[in-house]
């Protein structure tokens, strides 16, 4: 039995609790948050889902949870600016880590975390859970196997609604040093999907804008990416869509076919064409399977037991982050940025 501790008992912790409660071989053993009510809420939720009462430790000081010798895995689910710091501390206590996105808010922190995990042989899973969604996995495999020929161009879109009140209910939301930006938080999954499909990024150009003036970070972003394989990509993202979320879209255009996935839950195959394959009923049947958190946890548990890397390790988790950082720097310098980046921190964005 692998025992899990959660650091940060906000909204996202609920997704982890609902998954942990369903997997044999995993048990929630401890939680930490500065708010006792938040911890109590998580405990009640977990006990209800497992159908029995279990002893779960609570820690206002997260460092006490990290020092708990009974904990095997730590879920880092607190504000973005603390992700890398807490993950490194957890590794130094001998824990494996499930790390919510983003990995870090600087290249330096991300590289230090990767080096530490390799040195200590502790496993780190980055929560790009969409890579575990069966529909997306199948389409990605088709791209890799040449089903659509050479990928020429892809467009990744994010159209969400975040009101001024969303940023006002926490003093860290919408700040460059603690939150990191709209693309880093809301947009990173769609950037990751773009890179997963198109491959390694060669260069990035981008521009940002801000409609809600009571915060520091962007709420509009556009980016043009060039990939090592010669393909091109377009990012268009905003959190000013009214009156509510429109959703997400990824469209890929290849030499011998194309496809598009969209919808509010990013699970609708709205277009599919391939010269090689016309039978797609199996793909449409996968639209209903959105249990990616379960598959992600299963992969991580097996990675620990089999002593291998999870499918989304720090290496994969850093790629989308680095592309976003390059777009941010391109906005500041008004010029394309080549990858890999040697350095960048969201603190460089200041109030821009």
Automatic annotation (TrEMBL):
Residues annotated as domain Gfo/Idh/MocA-like oxidoreductase C-terminal:
141-339
Q: Can you give the residue ranges of the Gfo/Idh/MocA-like oxidoreductase N-terminal domain?
A: 2-127
Please give one Gene Ontology molecular function term for this protein.
Answer: nucleotide binding
Per the record, a Pfam family? GFO_IDH_MocA_C
Report the InterPro entries cross-referenced here: Gfo/Idh/MocA-like_OxRdtase_C, Gfo/Idh/MocA-like_OxRdtase_N, Gfo/Idh/MocA_Oxidoreductase, NAD(P)-bd_dom_sf
Q: Which domain of life is it from?
A: Bacteria
Task: Please report which protein family the annotation says this sequence is part of.
Answer: Belongs to the Gfo/Idh/MocA family.
Protein name in UniProt? Inositol 2-dehydrogenase
Its source organism is Oceanobacillus picturae
Instruction: Cite the source lineage.
Output: Bacteria, Bacillati, Bacillota, Bacilli, Bacillales
């Amino acid at each position: 039995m692998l025992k899990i501790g959660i650091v940060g008992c906000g909204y996202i912790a609920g997704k982890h609790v609902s998954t942990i409660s369903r997997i044999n071989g995993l048990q929630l053993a401890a939680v930490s948050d500065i708010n006792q009510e938040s911890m109590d809420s998580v405990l009640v939720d977990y006990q209800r889902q497992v159908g029995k009462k279990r002893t779960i430790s609570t820690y206002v000081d997260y460092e006490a949870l990290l020092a708990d010798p009974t904990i095997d895995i730590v879920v880092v689910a607190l504000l973005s600016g603390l992700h890398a710091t807490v993950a490194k501390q957890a590794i130094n206590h001998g824990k494996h880590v499930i790390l919510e996105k983003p990995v870090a808010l600087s290249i330096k922190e991300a590289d230090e975390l990767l080096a530490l995990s390799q040195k200590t042989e502790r496993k780190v899973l980055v929560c790009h859970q969409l890579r575990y969604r069966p529909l997306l996995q199948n389409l990605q495999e088709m791209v890799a196997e040449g089903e659509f020929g050479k990928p020429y161009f892809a467009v990744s879109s994010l159209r969400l609604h975040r009101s001024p009140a969303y940023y006002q209910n926490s003093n860290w939301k919408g700040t460059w040093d603690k939150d990191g930006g709209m693309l880093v938080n809301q947009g990173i999954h769609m950037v990751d999907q773009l890179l997963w499909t198109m491959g390694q990024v060669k260069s990035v150009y981008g521009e940002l804008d801000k409609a809600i003036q009571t915060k520091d970070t962007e709420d509009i972003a556009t980016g043009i990416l060039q990939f090592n394989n010669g393909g091109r990509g377009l990012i268009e993202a905003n959190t000013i869509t009214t009156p509510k979320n429109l959703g997400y879209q990824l469209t890929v255009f290849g030499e011998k076919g194309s496809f598009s996935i969209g919808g509010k839950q990013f699970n609708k195959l709205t277009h599919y064409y391939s010269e090689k394959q016309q039978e797609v009923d199996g793909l449409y049947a996968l639209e209903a399977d959105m249990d990616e958190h379960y598959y992600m946890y299963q992969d991580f548990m097996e990675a620990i037991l089999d002593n291998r890397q999870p499918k989304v390790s720090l290496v994969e988790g850093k790629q989308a982050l680095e592309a976003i950082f390059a777009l941010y720097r391109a906005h500041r310098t008004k010029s394309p940025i080549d990858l890999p980046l040697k350095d960048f921190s969201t603190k460089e964005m200041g109030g821009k």
